[in-house]
Amino acid sequence: MFEGLFTALRDEGVPVALDEWLMLHEGLERDLHQSTLSGFYLMSRAVLVKDEAHYDSFDIAFARYFSGIEPAGEAMDDKVWTWLHANPRFLHISEDQRRRLDEMRDQLELDELLEKLKEKLESQEEEHHGGSEHIGTGGTSPFGHSGYHPGGIRIGGQGRWRSAIQTAGERQYRDLRTDHEIGSRDFGVALRRLRQLSTRLDGPATELDVDDTIRQTADHAGQLRLSFRRPRRNTVRVLLMLDIGGSMDDHIMLLDRLFTAMHQASHFRDLQVRFFHNCVYDRVYLHPDMNPRTSESTDHLLAQVDSDYKLVMVGDACMAPTELLAPGGAIDYQHMNEIPGAEWLQSLEDHFRHAAWLNPHPKRWWDTIHGAYTLGIVRQIFPMFELSVDGLDQAVRHLMVRR
Amino acid sequence: MTNASFRGTSDYIASPDLQAAVNVAVSLERPLLVRGEPGTGKTLLAEAVAESLGMRLITWPVKSTTRAQDGLYVYDTVQRLYDSQFGEGDPADVAKYIRLGQLGESFAAPERVVLVIDEVDKADLEFPNDLLWELDRMSFHIPETGETVAAKQRPVVIITSNAEKELPDAFLRRCVFHYIAFPDPAQMEQIVRVHHPEVEEKLLRQAMEGFYLLRELDGLQKRPSTSELVDWVQALAVGGIDPDTIVDELPFMGVVLKKQADLDIARRHMAIRARRAAMQQERG
Questions:
Q1: Which of A30, A52, A223 sits opposite B27 (nearest CB)?
Q2: Which of A50, A317, A352, B52 would disulfide-bridge A375, Cβ 3.0–4.6 Å?
Q3: CB contact, 8 Å: A258 with chain B?
């Protein structure tokens, strides 16, 4: 049942699995949706969607699936109303009845119409077996015949069925999509995956080592000797290099959030941050003001920082070709670089076992954006990911792969 | 299975979405994973569910050091070793040194209880995976005593999380999920009234306006939530603030915004607003 919805959800990128689909049917069997479409909407969302970032996609799929069959009464037979099979007659509204319904709808606001239907149903709850007459005034006479549940619910279901589509149609969860809004918290979550546990690091030994305690105690003829060991710790160290100034100004908020998340991610064993302008040359800066006095030579940095640091480069990689390819091409006029930027980037990438480049420009712009030429070159040197939650996630995965 | 269904309580207002999610989870006997911004009442939800279904509540607050094992049972090795050393107690009886954790307790309870695993995302990444089997089967084995603890009545499990993203897929597939959206002004008014039934109409309206204004400011590190508004209304009422000045002057702003950087943003915003107002007056 509802396979169309399943496919629609998958098409929209909601990862629905078979277990969840079965759970949904279990719910349907137990009538947890109370035979209404809005109930079905809420139940299926609770069961099938596990991330509010997918609420919007769910709404789209749900609206597409259900609104597609809204006008065709016959088509509902297989899809929507099979789970209401107690009264298949519902589906065969005669032209006359439908016209009367439509007239009603013209007279009343949708809400009023729903209210009115509901009222009528409540008032005749007892006689719903034969009480087609009363509801009939609402132009829905065939509804009352169901002995399965108060027919009211079914009519309520029909009316509310629209309202579910309307809720879905409003797309009120649009803001929650991960490809839209990025807060430092989301970055933080992605960064949490950046870890490698080991007990080899320094730190207080706080965990009781039972095996060793028993061994030691036995060695001491039953005199209790407690033995402790160090808990496991994250060994990941990170070097973060940020492009600031110039074209990166547009992305300042995004960078700020990433930066905050990086600093809040207290689980790194070490986090080093350096700054550069457009491209890395022979010196990198310790502070974002890029004062040459607080800079260090790139060679010095490479000598200092082990190759097991994960290198995270952040920049738009859009610049004049000379900045990347020509000696003396550095954007700062007083800065004379003898080695072209591209070579510096290459030596950075060679030094570190794991490196990734995060680009604040959305990936779909990369081939056409102003500066696509240099972006393409940088992309050949570094694996590049877009600076979004999903992109960061992929970058982190890439950084954790053994090489 | 219980027939009672959750409708919120007198002091906990649950939206229809939330009610549906809770009832689906309770009926299907699946864990309910609740996610939402801090301060949207995730933890309170568990209390409300317990109250409304008339069940006992067992809380398992998760910390960064919590392991899945802690929730099942703890085997107090050190105590047993000491007892055997000094001849106290009865070290031969292992069961004496086994203490059930919150999950274990909820299984062992004779009646159906509500178990809340609070802030599951604080723990290690592997934590939810380690609980998969136990939550699925609602039973676990204690090798030390050879005993199996199985749920007499499957407890209602509510799991709260601030950031669900990193929870493993296998875990998510077994849960019913609900995201508590930030309340819209109408719901918010209802919530504040529950806490401050006496509050003056005008003060409340002005405070709400000021609150949503502050909340929508760009670049906040910590956006204020329901509890901040509730406190703020209290502060404004106690402070005897003239409701007309609230939106303009935003008194006791420190109650709403907790970070220095956020306060700076708000002050800048107020300065800009004041300047614009002055300019308009000049023109007018």
A1: A30
A2: A317
A3: no
For B61, other C-beta atoms within 10 Å of its C-beta total 12
> Hey, how many other C-beta atoms are within 10 angstroms of the C-beta on B209?
13
- Neighboring chain B residues of A189 at a CB cutoff of 8 Å: 121, 163, 165-166
**Domains, chain A, ranges and CATH?**
3-176 (no CATH), 235-400 (3.40.50)
Judging by DSSP bridges, how do beta strands A237-243 and A270-276 pair with one another? Answer: parallel
Are B230 and B275 in contact by the 8 Å Cβ rule? The answer is no
**pLDDT per position as a tens digit, B30-72:** 999 998 877 778 888 999 999 999 999 999 998 877 888 889 9
Counting every residue, how long is chain A?
403
Cβ-nearest to B28 among A23, A176, A213: A23
Distance from CA of B55 to the nearest CA of A (A): 21
Q: How far is it, in rounded angstroms, from Cα B165 to Cα B176?
A: 15
Q: Are A117 and A138 in contact (CB under 8 A)?
A: yes
According to DSSP, residue A232 is labeled P
Q: Is A72 on the interface with B (CB under 8 A)?
A: no
A210 phi and psi, to 5 degrees?
A: -65, -45
ipTM of the complex: 0.77
CB contact under 8 A, A55 and B179: yes
Q: Which of A46, A193, A226 is closest, CB to CB, to B176? A: A46
| A42:B20 CB<8 A | yes
Give the 3-state secondary structure of residue B100. Answer: strand
Q: Distance between CA A75 and CA A92 in Å, rounded?
A: 10
Nearest CA in chain A to B64: A267
Whether the CB-CB separation of A340 and A326 falls below 8 Å is answered with yes
Cβ-proximal residues to A402 (8 Å cutoff; 6+ apart), any chain: none
* Residue A359 β-bridge partners: A386
Answer yes or no: CATH 3.40.1350.10 is held by domain B16-180. no
CA A378/CA A395 separation, integer angstroms: 16
Higher pLDDT, B284 or B173: B173
Q: How far apart are CA A26 and CA A23, in angstroms?
A: 5
3-state DSSP assignment of residue B84: helix
Query: Within chain A, which residues score under 70 in pLDDT?
Result: 1, 68-189, 196-204, 245-246, 264-266, 332-334, 402-403
Percent residues over pLDDT 70 in chain A: 64
In the prediction, which pLDDT does A30 show?
Answer: 86
Q: Do A222 and B17 touch (CB under 8 A)?
A: no
